[in-house]
Structure to design on (113 residues):
């Protein structure tokens, strides 16, 4: 009887050790997963900063492109008007060459730059 009781207490201690080892194994697995997650996140930060810089640069380039396209469209409209509209051509030429008709009054405004 004493022998069985001794074997039962050894079995209980062995089961307790097994549970402790399983718990430690789970904790080690969780710690490894967390450290791996932190490593992945830490390596993503520099790439995110680079991405943000490139997106800002892209926004600037797109804004500049919009300005250039608007300027090009304005020039195309002006060119078409010079080719097709004699009144616009006359106004543009008179303004550029400082000509005016007799009795005409021309007002000029200085452009502040």
């Amino acid at each position: 009887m004493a022998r069985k009781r001794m074997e039962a207490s050894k079995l209980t201690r062995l089961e307790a050790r097994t549970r402790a080892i399983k718990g430690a194994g789970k904790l080690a697995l969780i710690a490894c997963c967390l450290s791996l997650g932190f490593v992945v996140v830490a390596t993503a930060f520099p790439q995110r900063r680079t991405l943000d810089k490139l997106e800002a640069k892209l926004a600037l380039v797109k804004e500049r492109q919009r300005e250039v396209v608007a300027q090009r469209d304005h020039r195309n409209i002006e060119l078409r008007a010079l080719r097709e509209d004699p009144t616009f051509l006359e106004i543009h030429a008179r303004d550029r060459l400082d000509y005016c008709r007799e009795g005409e009054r021309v007002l000029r405004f200085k452009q502040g730059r």
Q: What stands out?
A: The radius of gyration is 42 Å. Residues 2-97 form one domain.
